[in-house]
Amino acid sequence: MTVNVTRHRQSGFSLITILMMMVVLMSLALAGMNSGIVQERMAGNARDRNIALQAAEAALRDAEAYIEANLTAASAFDMECTGGLCLPPSMTSNNPTSQPLWKTVDWRPSKGKSRAYRDGVAGVKEELLDVFAPPRYIVELLPVLPPVSGQSASLGNSDEDAAQAFRISVRATGLRESTVVILQSTYIKR
After folding, report:
1. What are the boundaries of each domain within the chain?
2. What gap in Å lies between CA 117 and CA 63, rounded to an integer?
3. pTM score, whole prediction
């Protein structure tokens, strides 16, 4: 007994359809993976900036403690920012400018133009974790503030009653050197 088997010619339409569906699915998977990577980078950058911001806040508090304990208007402020104590460009007698000092100061520790975090607190050398480098700050001497409301500017007030203002500029990094936060604060000492 012979069996007649007839063969039909296949056109391959289902193979092409499945290959096209696989390409579409692979494209969707790559797009989802790319989106996940971008979101992970964004979260990492936000965390790094937050670490730098916290380091800058800690250095601001450190500078305020240093000012309260050590500085007066008679301290050694100069135009070269020796030891991080600066006269602002607007208060210099030769060529006064209004350019912000934090843009021109050399923040590198080797230059001695800024103070390191925890330099001003006696006996404490605390390191900040997770930062590329310890934050640094400068203190600028600002003009003496006028008397408070209700006090005469010239009668009965001594220099001891005058308030002295200082501008603190802090530069801090995060986990990476490229993540930089600069904060400023004005501290008034009576």
Report:
1. 13-189
2. 8
3. 0.73
